[in-house]
Each structure stands twice: as structure tokens, then as C-alpha cells.
Amino acid sequence: MFEQIDNIVAACIPLTEEERGIFHTLLRWRRLKKRSLLLQEGDICSFEAFITKGCIRSYYINEDGSETNLSFAVEGEWISDPQSFEDQLPSDMFIEALEDGELLLLDHRGKNELLHRVPKFERFFRLLLQRSLSQLQGRWRASVSHSAVQRYTSFLDKYPQTARRVTQTQIAKYIGVSPEFLSKMRSSMYRRAV
Fold first, then answer.
1. What is the span of the domain harbouring residue 173?
2. Does one domain contain both 117 and 150?
3. Quick check: 135 and 72 in contact, CB under 8 A?
4. Which end of the chain is more exposed for a tag (fewer CB within 10 A), N or C?
């Protein structure tokens, strides 16, 4: 159950067997059904989740009631609402399972205990945060300076595994276009490629 997460951690920090054991005791395993919500707007995010199986999205509901996907996460990746988790304040996002899945959850108390007992994890979580901020910055830059076609092809290039697992509607909500526009754009791209 821990092999996948242990490999991810080992790529960033070396751990002794004792430190790895401490980490494992603080993780909770959870199974998810497709369409179940891990987090709802207004709730305090109580977890950082490592995905061992499945595909999950985080999203916002806009003032007009439409959804905007913030991120997708698949096996070997983490998902949370960092602001709500760290500050223990109500979230303004939703986190939903797009497939049946399995997670390893680290709660707020457990993370603090882990950082106290195994300080090496400060580096691990800093590296995760840096990667997340870099991806978010790239996404923001693309949203203001790239065309819809560029955003779509960039999504396909960066996340080929995810692109095969989520609907075109979900991709449209991620790149900031309507599903109908994405369908027309894809048809046009296909005709030009042929």
C-alpha cells in the first residue's frame, strides 16, 4: 500500500526505516466512489491526499453557476486546498473523484506531528509546494497570453494520461472554453491535420 508514496518521497529525501514507519502510521487509507466529494466549498480542508488509484479534480463554481477546473490529479500525485489546509479556514473550492479511487490521507494534526518528528519532511513538502506554484504560474500565464488552441494543445502535451481519462467537458472547464467551442476547435484542428 505504501510502495508508491515511498518511491515519491525517496526521490526527494532519504528516510530511515524508523522515519518511514512514523510516516506510515500518520497516513489514513480511504477508498472513493466516482463523483464523491472530498471537499465542498465552505468546509475546512482537513487533508493532503496522495492518490494511489483514480483521477480527481479540484474546481470552483463561478458567480454565474459555471464550473472552472483548477487541477486534475492522478496516481502518484497529491491534491488538497493548501490555503484552507494550512490556515484552517473555509475553502472556496470543491475536490471531486472523477473515477473510483484510493487515497492516502495526511490530516493537519498528522502533518504537524510528522514535521516535528521527522524534520526532513519540511524539504519534501517545500519541493511539492514549489512544483505546484510553478505549475499554477504557468497555467495563469497561459490563460492570459495563449489562445484556446494553444491552451488545449499544451494541456494534451503536459497531461497526456489525464487527457485520456477525463471528458472533453472537463477539459473545456480547465482551459476556459465551453464544451461546444472545444468540440468545434478540435474538429477544425483535425481537418487541418488531415
1. 146-194
2. no
3. no
4. C
Q: What CA–CA distances, in Å, run from 194 to 76, 112, 180, 184?
A: 36, 55, 21, 16
Segment 131-134 long-range contacts (CB within 8 Å, at least 24 positions apart): 132/82
The single residue listed with the C-alpha cell 473515477 is 99
DSSP character at residue 45? P
Q: Are residues 123 and 181 in the same domain?
A: no
Ordered alpha helix ranges (H), 11-119: 17-26, 82-87, 108-117
- pTM confidence score: 0.89
**What total of structural domains would you count in the chain?**
2
* Pair 67, 159 in one domain: no
| Contacts for 107-115: CB closer than 8 Å, 24+ residues apart | 107/28, 107/46, 107/47, 108/46, 108/47, 110/26, 110/27, 111/26, 111/48, 113/26, 114/22, 114/23, 114/26
pLDDT confidence of residue 132: 87
The residues pairing with 61 across neighbouring beta strands, listed in sequence order, are 67
Q: What is the CATH number of the domain that holds 99?
A: 2.60.120.10
Query: Phi/psi at 108 (nearest 5 deg)?
Result: -60, -50
The reply to whether 95 and 170 lie within a common domain is no
Nearest to 71 by CA among 160, 183, 173: 173
Evaluate whether 181 touches 170 at the Cβ level (below 8 Å): no
